[in-house]
Amino acid sequence: GAVSYWLSRRITKPLLRMETVTRQFAAGDFSSRVPTLEIPEFDRLGHSFNRMADDLEGVEQRRRELVGDLTHELRTPLTVVKGYLEGLADGAIAPEPQPYNRLVKEPQRLQRQVNDLQELSQLESGYLSIDAQAVAIAPLVTQISDRFSDQLLGSDTLQITTNLPPNLPLAWGDPARIEQIIVNLLSNALRHTAAGEVNIRAYTQSEQGQQFLWIAVSDTGSGIAPEDIPHVFERVWRADRSRASHSGGSGVGLAICRRLVMLQGGQIKASSRLNKGSTFSFSLPTQPVV
């Protein structure tokens, strides 16, 4: 009987510890962890439980940050609209075209943010389909470059250049989504480059016996600090939050790009030097991904 009691206590004690930690998790406390246990099987179970706890704590932290960032992003245009409407109502602002034009732009920015978040949600939940096919990248890049260059006519300080080698292989992906990625990266580069050059180049590279076509968008803009590089593809994240309200972006464009690239079997990466410029590159397979 004594031996049976000792064995039962030895088995139930670690289980009771796990139960206590689980109750703390249910109460919203994600800081508790299972200590090292004497029984090897239970100790491995405890390590697995702690890894799950770390993941849950990270998810909860990102959720809080996302809610806070979204609140800030949505509050800014609403505050601007409210201020203009109150000024027009009490006569502090003259009813001229300029304030009305600003009132139109703020809801448009708000709608763009909501649309981007909805698209990102569809991407992450798998509701957005990819119509993959063979795509000629050079004509697509040239078309996009010409479209943006027309908007820069008359600018002597900023230009868009391309470097597209002849005989590039066809990429395998969705043409509309590839265009969306390039437009997003190019818009980002132009937004953070006051003067200099934005270059789009394409090249091939073999990885693990498979050939990929890479597209890189480089700029000579403000650049990104090294500690911020790992976060650039996160949702509603900006390196310079003080400019978030005036940058014109929704904060989820790069997150959308990452999801679109991953769904097409490629990868995306970023490199940058502060005050020197940034390069965002993504790859696409040159043949269907099995």
What does this protein look like?
This protein is α+β, with helices and mostly antiparallel strands and 290 residues long. Helices cover 51% and strands 17% of the residues. The chain has 6 helices and 7 strands; from the N terminus they run H-H-H-E-H-E-E-H-E-E-H-E-E. The strands form 2 sheets. It has a 5-stranded mixed beta sheet with strand order 2-4-5-7-6. A two-stranded antiparallel sheet has the order 1-3. Strand 6 (268-273) and strand 7 form a beta hairpin. Helix 2 runs antiparallel to helix 3 and helix 3 packs parallel to helix 6. The protein is flat. The N and C termini lie far apart (61 Å).
SSE pattern, N- to C-terminal: HHHEHEEHEEHEE
Q: What oligomeric state do the depicted chains represent?
A: single chain
Helix content: 40-55%
Structural class: alpha+beta
Give the C-alpha Rg.
26 Å
How much beta, percentage-wise? 15-25%
Instruction: Give the count of helical stretches.
Output: 6
Largest sheet: 5 strands, mixed
The rounded distance between the terminal residues' Cα atoms is 61 Å
Can you summarize this structure?
The chain is of the alpha+beta class and 290 residues long. Helices cover 51% and strands 17% of the residues. Residues 241-248 have low confidence and may be disordered.
